Amino acid sequence: MTIRRGIPPLLVVLALAGCTAEEPSGIQLGTARRAPVSEVVEAPATIGARAAATLRAPATGTLTKLHVRDGDTVAKGDVLAKISSPEARGRLSQARQAERLASRPSAPRPAFAAPTLRGFDGRAFAGLDRKVRSDFAQARSAARKVGDATARKRLIAAIDLAERRHRAQRAALGAITKDLTRSVNGVLSQLTGQLSTGLGSLTSSMASLQAASRSQAKAAVKTAESVVKGLTIKAPFDGVVTLGRSSGGGGATDALGGLLGRLPAGLPTQAPPDGGGSGGGPAVATGVPVAAGDAIVTVTDVSELTISADVDETDVLLVERGTAARIELDAVPGATYTAKVTGVGVTPMAGTTGGVSYPVRLTLGPGRFDDGRKAPAPKPGMSAVARLTVRESPGALAVPASAVVTSGRDSVVWAVRGGAAERRVVRLGAQGDALVEVLTGLREGERVVVKGADAVRQGQKLP
């Protein structure tokens, strides 16, 4: 990266040097005096627009109307073009139909009653008990008719014993059936609870799926509506029109083409071609078929021009927000534009000399020719050279740049003391092309070697 320093008037250099042509050794002397010093960093730059948006076809169709031509100035919201796309409108119709189906209310959940075991309680044996009691009564009545008293007594006793045994067996059977009924009903109740829980979870899951389906259907409708709405292409902001894709000036691609990537599954789409627009896509004209993603119109906002400069890593730490700069354009020779740094990037880029550079953004001011005439406004994409004034000292203690010799990490100046050379380590401030600022190590009015300093030795006699 080339660094160009500020060049003071020739008279200032000559006054500081105070050189004499009579010195045969090639060594010349000068005087440390007060003078303005400016340090300037030079960097290649490109003119950019405030914003640029490439508006693309949201779906495959035909360009039915083109309302603008190259170079037209448009306002935000102006209709620029219209596209006919039966495919996009068909997707919208399908999405709305899917939404109606997903929005239908689901059938109510049927009530599930717990089954119970019946028929093993006392009522189930009531008829049998009555029949048995009637049989015992008939047997006892027949026994009483027996003439033999002893036989009659034994027979009645046997009937009574049989009836008591029957009652005991009946009571035992009733207890057993009651316990069995209770156990079976308990198991059935537990199974019913588990089944109800399972059905409840299933019902909840089905409800969640239906809600998700409705949400997806609504999203599909919104996306399809946005695509159809995008068939009428409007200017996103005030600017100048370029048909197809703009080849320079920076900016961002309009989000209209991004709708294609957000279409839900099941809705077919066509990916935008690489490059798109005028760089390789179809011509932009009424009646021309277009594919999804084809660039139709680029709108560039030139109300405020910006500059993007690539500053070398060795200089970028000197640049900060608010740094003033002068801009020279290849397209406008003899003119200089004012500029000011608005931001310094932190992402490095590979430099042309093997190092790295950093992007610096500036706002562009008015320009003037050397004779004072107003310079024309540049166009986005033009190449330029930015000269950034990184340090400026209007009343610096200055010496010619040739007086400073680098020795390791030190900056050295040879001062004249008692007619001999004295080595002085100095600290430098602003460093111009012809003059440098000396912060410490010298006093105003001291004589210094300004030519041939690299050949001077400590204590060497000087004229």
Helix-strand blueprint:
Layout (H helix, E strand, L loop, with lengths): L9 H8 L10 E4 L1 E16 L2 E6 L4 E6 L6 E2 L4 E6 L1 H17 L23 H19 L4 H81 L2 E3 L4 E5 L45 E2 L4 E7 L4 E7 L11 E6 L5 E10 L4 E2 L5 E14 L13 E18 L3 E4 L2 E8 L2 E12 L3 E6 L6 E5 L12
Antiparallel strand pairs: 1-21, 2-11, 2-16, 3-10, 4-6, 4-9, 5-8, 6-7, 8-10, 11-15, 12-13, 12-16, 13-15, 14-15, 16-20, 17-18, 18-19, 19-20
Helix pairs in contact: 2-4, 3-4
Which structural class do the helices and strands define?
A: alpha+beta
H/I helix tally: 4
CATH class of the largest domain: Mainly Beta
> Topology as H/E string?
HEEEEEEHHHEEEEEEEEEEEEEEE
How are the strands of the biggest sheet laid out side by side?
A: 2-11-15-13-12-16
**What is the fold named in CATH at topology level of the largest domain?**
Elongation Factor Tu (Ef-tu), domain 3
Helix content: 25-40%
**Looking at the structure, what is the overall shape?**
elongated
N-to-C terminal Cα separation, in Å?
A: 39 Å
Count of β-strands: 21
How would you portray this structure in words?
One of its GO terms (molecular function) is efflux transmembrane transporter activity. Residues 396-461 form the YknX-like C-terminal permuted SH3-like domain. One of its GO terms (cellular component) is efflux pump complex. By secondary structure, this protein is an alpha+beta fold. It folds into 3 domains: 10-49 and 305-455, Elongation Factor Tu (Ef-tu), domain 3 (Beta Barrel); 55-69 and 76-82 and 235-242 and 250-296, no CATH class; 122-226. It is built from 4 helices and 21 strands. A hairpin with a 3-residue loop joins strand 19 and strand 20 (435-440). The longest helix has 81 residues, at 149-229. The protein is elongated, with a radius of gyration of 51 Å. The two termini are 39 Å apart. The model is unreliable at 1-15, 19-24 and 246-280 (pLDDT under 50).
